[in-house]
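Notes from hallway chat w/ T.B., transcribed later so I don't forget. T.B. wanted the structure written out for a chain they're using in a teaching module, and asked if we could keep both sequence and structure tokens in one place. Agreed to drop them here.
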Amino acid sequence: MKRLSCVLYLIVIFALSVVGQEQRTRDLYLSYKSGNSSAGQPGAKVVVALNRSDAIQMVSPDTVFRSGDKVRFYLSLNFNGYLAVLNKGTSGRIVRLYPYPGAPNPVHASGEIVVPGKDAWFAFNETPGIEEVTFLMSKDPIKEVEERNPGTSDSQGLEPASDRSGDENVQRSIVALDKRAQHQARDLHLEISDKAAFGVASEKELLGLVKFTVFLKHEK
């Protein structure tokens, strides 16, 4: 009985420490957003909206999605900075989801970014697998992001339609950005709290490139 009580105690302590960590990450983000930079850190908040059979709800990023589901990302930064969003689908191909034509970049802390756009959705196709959506942020311009934006609001399978145009320069810049993200970007640990994902970084880290990745599980 004493051993069982000890095990239960350790489980409770571990659970409380995990919850505390999530709250700290969220609180660091919210504190910085409210102007208290001494108590918080710059970062991002991501919420996933799911449209399933025209019923829309906010869901956790670790939701299991089905073919035909549609999703939209709501992203908020608590600092003024630059943003790019890349998607690596089940085919292995990399496309850029943000910025898209008319999208703001730099992004201001007071706004909310909708990807792919307020009147559009990304649709999961018939191929199951894992969709990797990587959010890249910096306080300085992201050099691989050209003024010519390849994405559009008309997307299928998380891929912007006009990105299929075969523009080699655009695709080269996307591949170069993905390569830099893998080898040079600071990888933030994502904490999920109340169906929202939070990630924070230090001021110094944001002088370079930081990233976090959301893995969307897709089943038929």
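Follow-up for T.B.: The longest helix spans residues 2-33. Might be a good example for the class.
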